[in-house]
Amino acid sequence: MKSLYLHFPFCETKCHYCDFYSIGREKTREGDASQFERAMMSEIKAYGDRGVFTDPFETLFLGGGTPSMTPPDSMGRIFSTLFIYNRLAPDYEWTMEANPSSISLDQFRAYREIGLNRVSMGVQSLRNDHLSKLGRVHDEGQALRAFETLFEAGFTNVSTDLLCGVPGQSVDDLREHMERLTQFPIQHLSIYLLTLAPHHKMYKDLPDENEQLRHLLFIDEFMRERGFDHYEISNFAKPGKQARHNLVYWTGGSYLGLGPSAHSYDAQKRARSKNVSSLHKYADLLAANKQAVEWTESLTDEQIDLEKWMLAVRLEKGFPRDWLRTPRQQNKAQILVREKLLESHDKIPGNLRATPRGFALSDAIVKELASS
Ligand code: SF4
Fold first, then answer.
1. Is the CB of 64 under 6 A from ligand 1?
2. In ligand 1, which atom is closest to the CA atom of 17?
3. Which atom of ligand 1 is nearest to the CA of 11?
4. 3-state secondary structure labels for all residues of the chain
5. What is the Cα–Cα distance from 345 to 316, expressed in whole angstroms?
6. Is 3-249 in CATH node 3.30.450.20?
7. Using one digit for the tens of pLDDT, what is the confidence trace for 100-109?
8. Residue with CA closest to ligand 1 atom 8
9. Ligand 1 center from residue 194 Cα (angstroms)
10. 107 Cβ closer than 6 Å to some ligand 1 atom
């Protein structure tokens, strides 16, 4: 396993729209943080003792939750345990997700000393009314100060997340947010369309599909003009600054996930697994020397084929034309090209890729090509 994901389950509060496994401060009990640290170290030891960590780590990703709520000394103990078993590759990428509400200069200097070299900061919006509607605890001022802190701490590879399709959000709001964020030397931007369950109180206020498409096409144009490659459906990067860890996910590579609710994928065995989504179950299982895995599944040929298409359509490099094996697939692809959802790749001869509009309608493309 050259790629490792570690899930840190604590957050300041639980945001209204969030589906990730995380626990807000109000639901955290005393001792939870140290219980988590012990359990994570036990899980690392269990995999290390089984000889799972052989090749040096090329990518590490600390997600959650809000990993930046974990103090550097606790982080240091967790990674000292990991580095008993393995080392980092010379050109490793080690990312931490952070939130503007949990950032200080000393803390981020200390993370850099441990070895972190990339930060992904969840800004989501720079409008205070939208932030509070989404249940975020930070405000615009904190978000902008957080960037200053990160750069002052010496990070040069910084990514940020924004949401589009937020009820009440306009293209002008997005333009203003992106203009302000790209004034910092950020190298990467992820923009996700807000999705909510039908029972969510804001569901009826979500913009319609045409407005969502307007948001997505505007973002594509704006970011390209500023020298970012739209290399994945929701991700933009300066040349050479693509998120390498996420590319492992998007190209069907293997990764191991540690921590409650973390997913793993073994490409050789074509097997996926997930840890239990409960801090206390996770800790109890590891304390009893058991695995924290909740389920494992072997992927069928159909699942592999569907995933292959889903992943290829979301990447800018697209897929080779010779994947279109049946006359039906070839015919469908021709129609998608005529509809300007697919196009020939200008730099990779023989590849087809989604156009910016195709990115926004990728589910429809996958449905046409994978089920043939
Ligand atoms: S900060 Fe992130 S992980 Fe935590 S609740 Fe909000 S969206 Fe979810």
1. yes
2. 7
3. 4
4. CCEEEEEECEECCCCCCCCCCCEEHHHCCCCHHHHHHHHHHHHHHHHHHCCCCCCCEEEEEEEECCHHHCCHHHHHHHHHHHHHHCCEEEEEEEEEEECHHHCCHHHHHHHHHHCCCEEEEEEECCCHHHHHHHCCCCCHHHHHHHHHHHHHCCCCCEEEEEEECCCCCCHHHHHHHHHHHCCCCCCEEEEEECCCCCCCCCHHHCCCHHHHHHHHHHHHHHHHHCCCEEEECCEEECCCCCCHHHHHHHCCCCEEEECCCCEEEECCCCEEEEECCCHHHHHHHHHCCCCCEEEEEECCHHHHHHHHHHHHHHECCCEEHHHCCCHHHHHHHHHHHHCCCEEECCCCCCEEEECHHHHHCHHHHHHHHHCC
5. 9
6. no
7. 988 999 999 9
8. 18
9. 13
10. no
How many other CB atoms sit within 10 Å of the CB of residue 10? Answer: 22
Q: Does 66 sit in the ligand 1 pocket, CB within 6 Å? A: yes
Which one, of 116, 187, 114, lies nearest residue 157 by Cα? 187
**Whole-angstrom distance, CA of residue 191 vs CA of residue 310:** 18
pLDDT of residue 327: 93
Query: Which pLDDT score, from 0 to 100, does residue 371 have?
Result: 63
- Token pair, residue 86, equals 């393995």
**Each residue of 211-256: pLDDT tens digit?**
998 999 999 999 999 999 999 999 999 999 999 999 999 999 999 9
Q: What is the mean pLDDT of each run of 10 residues along the chain (372 residues)?
A: 96 90 92 96 97 95 95 97 96 97 94 98 95 92 96 97 94 95 97 91 92 92 96 96 97 97 97 97 97 97 92 95 93 95 95 93 91 59
**Rounded to the nearest 5°, which phi and psi values hold at 182?**
-80, 0
Ligand 1 atom having least distance to the Cα of 13: 5
- The domain segmentation of the chain, as residue ranges, is 3-249, 302-370
**The predicted structure's pLDDT at residue 372:** 55
Instruction: With CA atoms as reference, report the closest residue to 17 among 135, 123, 124, 132.
Output: 135
